Amino acid sequence: MAIILDGKTIAKKLEAELAAYSRIREIRLDVILVGDNLASATYVRNKHRAAERVGMQSVIHTLPVHTKSEEIEQLIEELNSNEEVDGILLQLPLPEQLNSEKLLDSIHPMKDVDVFHPENAGLAYLGRPRIWPCTPSGILRLLHEHEIDIVGKHAVVVGRSNIVGKPMAALLQHANATVTVCHRMTKRLQDFTRQADILVVAAGSPGLIGKDDIKPGAVVIDVGSEFVNGKLTGDVRFAEVEPIASAITPVPGGVGPLTIASLLSNTVRLASLRRGWAN
Ligand SMILES: Nc1nc2c(c(=O)[nH]1)N[C@@H](CN(C=O)c1ccc(C(=O)N[C@@H](CCC(=O)O)C(=O)O)cc1)CN2
């Protein structure tokens, strides 16, 4: 029987810490949502509610699906130069006519709560992070809160996205794990996943990992969250893997809530750095 790594409880704890901070400082997060992707709308609403719970000001800019790039650039420019705005988040995915890279690059690095700007990503990958991206940072917090040792452990990350896989690998390495990154072109994936002491699966492939893919006693972190037949489904077959893992995240209720709590934490951190507050 594995320990269930309960993200909701840890997220509440993190929110309580942030609420204590927000009581003494005014902090503002602006989220831009373009289009009518239902899942994105839910995530943005959840971010707004979480910000309100901790006493942070949250402003959502909802734009129609056919919004032109120039309009979004102009909005980002206004938010960049608004002294009251501490964090700017452009919710992904964007409608296909928009160039995500160009728009993300236009967010001021000191307000880039997602760590997508090359300056912030570069600093993080050089081991000099301002902040770490929300999902990897939440996962580290989850491991830390459960006193799961990372140093010298073999961590295998499945997936190499800019949002999770790449920064997750960098953060685990920063935390002194030995890291292997696998992706969709990896041959004989199981040969790698079976070596993992800590397995992070962020492949966006529901049910990819089963009991034969893990080493008994492994810590298994499931970042997957796709709707399959109306049910939120992870990349790991939980019922199969749970009996042989030592610890495992559920979907829902694992990594997701911590992604949002980490976003608030990143906003506080960037506000502190930009405004010169002690943190
Ligand atoms: N600009 C960004 N866009 C996106 C990010 C991101 O970090 N920055 N991540 C994902 C989506 N995401 C946050 O935006 C996110 C996904 C899932 C959850 C979450 O709490 N999931 C719950 C289940 C919620 C449900 O019932 O649907 C859970 O796992 O328990 C939070 C945030 C893509 N875009």
From TrEMBL:
InterPro entries: Aminoacid_DH-like_N_sf, NAD(P)-bd_dom_sf, THF_DH/CycHdrlase, THF_DH/CycHdrlase_cat_dom, THF_DH/CycHdrlase_NAD-bd_dom. GO terms for biological process: L-histidine biosynthetic process; methionine biosynthetic process; purine nucleotide biosynthetic process; tetrahydrofolate interconversion. The keyword Amino-acid biosynthesis applies. NADP(+) binds at G159, R160, S161. It catalyses: (6R)-5,10-methylene-5,6,7,8-tetrahydrofolate + NADP(+) = (6R)-5,10-methenyltetrahydrofolate + NADPH; (6R)-5,10-methenyltetrahydrofolate + H2O = (6R)-10-formyltetrahydrofolate + H(+). Pathway: One-carbon metabolism; tetrahydrofolate interconversion. Pfam families: THF_DHG_CYH (PF00763), THF_DHG_CYH_C (PF02882). One of its GO terms (cellular component) is cytosol. Gene3D superfamilies: Leucine Dehydrogenase, chain A, domain 1, NAD(P)-binding Rossmann-like Domain. It comes from the Bacteria. GO terms for molecular function: methenyltetrahydrofolate cyclohydrolase activity; methylenetetrahydrofolate dehydrogenase (NADP+) activity. Catalyzes the oxidation of 5,10-methylenetetrahydrofolate to 5,10-methenyltetrahydrofolate and then the hydrolysis of 5,10-methenyltetrahydrofolate to 10-formyltetrahydrofolate. HAMAP family: THF_DHG_CYH. Homodimer. Belongs to the tetrahydrofolate dehydrogenase/cyclohydrolase family. This is Bifunctional protein FolD.
